[in-house]
Amino acid sequence: LFIYSAGRMVPTRRMIELEPVCRRMIENLDELFTSPHPFDPHKAEGVIRIVAVDNAFLTLLSPLIVELEATVPGVKFEIYDRYSNMLESMRDAKIDLAIYSTEGKAVPAGFIEMPLFTSDHVLLVRRNHPLKAIAAHNGGLTFEDTARFKHIGIALAMGSTENRFIIGQQCNLADKISCEMPYFVAGACLCSESDLLMRMPRETALKLVRYFPVEILRQERGLKLPWRPGLFWYRSSDTPLLTWVRSKITIGAKRIFEEAEELLPFDR
User: Fold this and answer.
1) For the residues of 203-266, what is the DSSP string, one character each?
2) 116/249 Cα distance (integer angstroms)
3) Considering only Cβ atoms within 10 Å of each terminal Cβ, which end of the chain, N or C, has fewer?
4) pLDDT at position 24
5) CB–CB of 238/176 below 8 Å?
């Protein structure tokens, strides 16, 4: 089919005759991987079932739903709280996606975890809380300062056990808990009406200050309490719509993190 001549490969007459046949074969092969009905997200219809606690919904999902309600009206969202057998539900295709982090543990077989970003926590307090003046006077807070006040403990159900995980447990914080609940938004309401403190992710706090008479204080000096939200799904659950939704969440999360960094940057 080819011969070597003058330092290069030259097609023979037979190869020249076969060229149009080969081109048609390649074009036919390409058709195997080209959908006759390419995915158009603006015409998409379907239900997206997502597991997310309320701060993940408020911070990461509500902006997406607002956007898609105006541009993709055929897509509906069903949001579920974490529950003990949610992984089994995802394997059975009853749940499509979770905003979930394995917190450094091994990802279960067949699942994919895509980290969105790594942020930190802050303290949420009512406006003009006594700690605000202390932080301003001393250039920050100590554990002795915050120990004077009780906390709202955010207790999150883990996806594979009946146990609840209270924010701060991983740092062995000795917060005096007045009320334990799984609701960030309700906790912010309680904060606004009392002297209680509440630890929450920076990005969530920045959104809540728009709606409640609360303020953000940096946590105690030296405390690092990371927030690492991630997308979590079962490998076999891919569809064009789900792939597109995941990309929208990922892009939105990057924007949310960058905006938070501008408003309240952390020392890295």
Assistant:
1) HHHHHHTTTSSEEEE--STT---EE--EEEEEGGG--HHHHHHHHHHHHHHHHHHHHHHHHSPP
2) 9
3) C
4) 85
5) no
